[in-house]
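A further point concerns the way the authors explain their paired sequence and structure data. The central task, working out the structure tokens from the amino acid sequence alone, is never made concrete. I therefore recommend that a typical entry be quoted early in the introduction. An entry of this sort, consisting of the sequence and the corresponding backbone structure tokens, reads as follows:
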Amino acid sequence: MNAKIATMLLLASATGLAACSKKAPAELPPAPVDNTAPVTQPTTDTGGTAAPGTQAHFAGAVGSATTIYFDTDRYNIDSQDAAALQAQAQYFARYPQLTFTIEGHADERGTREYNIALGERRANSAKAYLVSMGVDPNRIAVVSYGKERPVALASNETAWAQNRRAASVMIN
């Protein structure tokens, strides 16, 4: 009788522990895409020698304005962000056939779920600003990577500041 009780207790505790185990996420984010642009000399087209619609052309036209940065736990657009987004809006007005994605990112602090939600709010803030500047919302896709794709790997304020961002990436 004691063997049956011991076996039942062992099975019950194993079942309880299995219920508490971490599960892998249902879907992992896609692998990073190398969207670094080769250094080109800008021409009067403001996009360098790259073809319009490429990330290199976009980066050549707007410079560092392809990415905006946020304060900790914030997703509001400040004056520096507004200037960068205005440069993007001018580029997209010049090339109305182009579509793009705004990627929202967060630093490593906080839970995965919190950072995914924060990254989405950041990307949507940038999208809303661009739409207010006349960019067609149907041209803009939004994705949040949360803390899954850091550009700086250190665990300090400098690295965290670089990872709290929304980046515009060309689709075509």
In short: Strands lie at 67-69, 100-105, 140-146, 165-170.
